[in-house]
Amino acid sequence: MTALGRALPERVVTNDELAQTLDTSDEWIRTRTGIRERRMAAPGESTVDLAVAAGREALGDSSVDAVVLATSTADQLCPASAPQVAARLGLGTAAAFDVNAVCSGFVYALATAQGFIAGGIANRVLVIGADVFTSLVDPTDRTTVPIFGDGAGAVVLRAGDSDEPGAIGPFDLHSEGELADLLWVEAGGSKHRFSEDQRDHHLVMQGTAVFRHACARMAESSRAVLEQAGWMVGDVDRFVGHQANIRILQATAKHLGLPADAVVANIDRVGNTSAASIPLALADAVDDGTLVPGHRVLLTAFGAGLTWGSTLLTWPELG
Ligand code: COA
To answer: What assembly does the database describe for this protein (predicted)?
Structure first.
């Protein structure tokens, strides 16, 4: 990993603002989720727009052979959004495609990019996690609206030695499709193309079940990847988990036996930004000095699908 970028919509939506239209309160949202505010894309501001901004910051003057965009809120159902991102970034005819593993998408996309590089298919890959989840939630649903926000984060991966700082891997990736309906948008795809019931076109979530699965799977996957790498739990300096709920992050860290100060969290400012969550948390941790070169970092994510996965790296000096 050689570079990092991010983009957030300008509009900040506080819990108090949500409480003006929903039967909720700042106190409920803060204590149950750890979220104080989130960013919301303006009308017409899309996943591609945010992905381009984050990608531009990560690329600087450099170029890449491939773009892997983790998203489940592509600008269109068809085609993928990554080619439009590559075009707007002036990347010529670089390979470009989307990876949809929802909130685990960034870890899946890192694995895909690492595989492209290890397989000699590309030398440099731009990996972006970007989502406009506020486009999926029912604005009248107090069980989902407070949780999600919009954003994008990006990193550049380049070919290198597996023992240098920034080398990514091993990976632990899994899914459990039997539980897809715990968190999904039922209509609008090829199965239920159109529903008279508007709710079928919005995200529905069984929050308590998702909470339980998220804690168990992120802990299990973290242990698996640590074992593959030969790291002990005590080797981990920073735990960067998917920012779904501060209580999920704290419970998972506790299961693993990690100290509270190893947990990287920016959920209070951005909410759950789905595929953008991990790179945004990394970028904020670099900015505030909680993540510095040499730190051994555990990344773990969980999302709809269900999907989950983890990876590791020693934090590098970024270009
Ligand atoms: N404001 C006020 N009250 C709310 C509310 C809101 N926004 N949302 C739900 N409630 C109410 C419920 O109706 C319920 O009321 P009741 O006790 O009278 O029935 C009560 O609060 C408790 O609801 P519950 O769903 O049991 O709360 P919880 O502690 O499980 O927290 C979540 C709810 C959604 C915050 C939590 O389950 C969670 O974070 N789940 C995981 C979600 C997630 O991470 N999704 C993305 C995964 S990638």
So the answer is: Homodimer.
What pLDDT digit, counting tens, does each position of 20-78 carry? 999 999 999 999 999 999 999 999 999 999 999 999 999 999 999 999 999 999 999 99
CATH number of 3-158: 3.40.47.10
Can 215 be counted among the known catalytic residues?
Answer: no
Kindly report each contact of residues 162-167 with a partner whose C-beta sits within 8 Å and lies 24 or more positions away, as own/partner. 164/316, 165/293, 165/294, 165/313, 165/314, 165/315, 165/316, 165/317, 166/1, 166/2, 166/313, 166/314, 166/315, 166/316, 167/313, 167/314
Active-site option among 103, 202, 215, 245: 103
Q: Whose CA is nearest to atom 11 of ligand 1?
A: 143
Q: pTM for the complete prediction?
A: 0.97
CATH fold of 171-314? Peroxisomal Thiolase; Chain A, domain 1 (3.40.47)
Q: Among this protein's residues, is 100 annotated catalytic?
A: no
